[in-house]
TrEMBL record:
Note on cofactor: Binds 1 zinc ion per subunit.
Pathway: Amino-acid biosynthesis; L-methionine biosynthesis via salvage pathway; L-methionine from S-methyl-5-thio-alpha-D-ribose 1-phosphate: step 2/6
GO molecular function: methylthioribulose 1-phosphate dehydratase activity; zinc ion binding
Cofactors named for this entry: Zn(2+)
One cellular-component annotation, GO: cytoplasm
SMART domains in the record: Aldolase_II (SM01007)
Name of the protein described by the UniProt record: Methylthioribulose-1-phosphate dehydratase
């Protein structure tokens, strides 16, 4: 099971790396391994996530601390992943920093959310109505991670979702790795489209 989950997460990591979504060691990923007790594999902190090594991930528990002896440090943002696994049935969490998601988070930061509509790709979130609306909440980039995690948790109410952290990045989750990656790609499509549209409109 654990090896299978490792391979799944490694495959997602490889694909996101191919998109160049791990600039300057940014980003962190996780995948649930077991429910009772909760354990999940999370990326080790501070590494270049474009590289593939046997030390890319470590197993952590419900408190975000290593579940077994290791010299590896879990992602500095593991507590955000903890909130998702503790509050929902999500199976995978993906966090990336891109220029487009940062620009959108800054442009709409004061509004506290960005709202997308009239976009075919919104169907990726399971919203099939013609006038469907997809909202991504935006939270401030608080440096103290337990505080950030508490603010983040206010927007974690479903088994799938997305939250922008202002001038930082986006965290997306879904029931499994396939769904989380699909949601992340759709969010990035929307952010990228919207940045270009804003530029054209100026
Ligand atoms: C230069 S990236 C700053 C930290 C961050 O936001 C991030 O996503 C990566 O941190 P981690 O501890 O998961 O490597
Ligand atoms: Zn980050």
């Amino acid at each position: 099971m654990r090896q299978q989950k490792w391979n799944e997460l490694a495959e997602v990591k490889r694909e996101l790396a191919e998109r160049d979504w791990f600039m300057a060691t940014s980003g962190n990923l996780s995948i649930k391994v077991s429910d009772e007790p909760l354990t999940f594999l999370v990326t080790a902190s501070g590494k270049d996530k474009r590289k593939e090594t046997a030390e890319d991930f470590l197993l952590v528990g419900a408190d975000g601390k290593p579940a077994e002896a290791t010299h590896l440090k879990p992602s500095a943002e593991t507590l955000l992943h903890v909130e998702i696994y503790n509050k929902t049935n999500a199976g995978c969490v993906l966090h990336v920093h891109t220029v487009d998601n940062n620009v959108i988070s800054e442009w709409y930061g004061d509004k506290g959310e960005v709202v997308f509509t009239n976009q075919e790709i919104i169907k990726a979130f399971g919203l099939w109505e013609e006038d469907a609306v997809f909202r991504i909440p935006i939270i401030p980039n608080v440096a103290h991670i337990p505080t950030l995690a508490r603010m983040f948790a206010e927007h974690v109410n479903d088994d799938a979702g997305a939250v922008l952290i202002r001038n930082h990045g986006i965290t997306v989750w879904g029931k499994d790795a396939f769904e989380a990656k699909k949601f992340l790609e759709a969010c990035e499509f929307l952010c990228s489209y919207h940045v270009k549209l804003l530029l054209f409109k100026r």
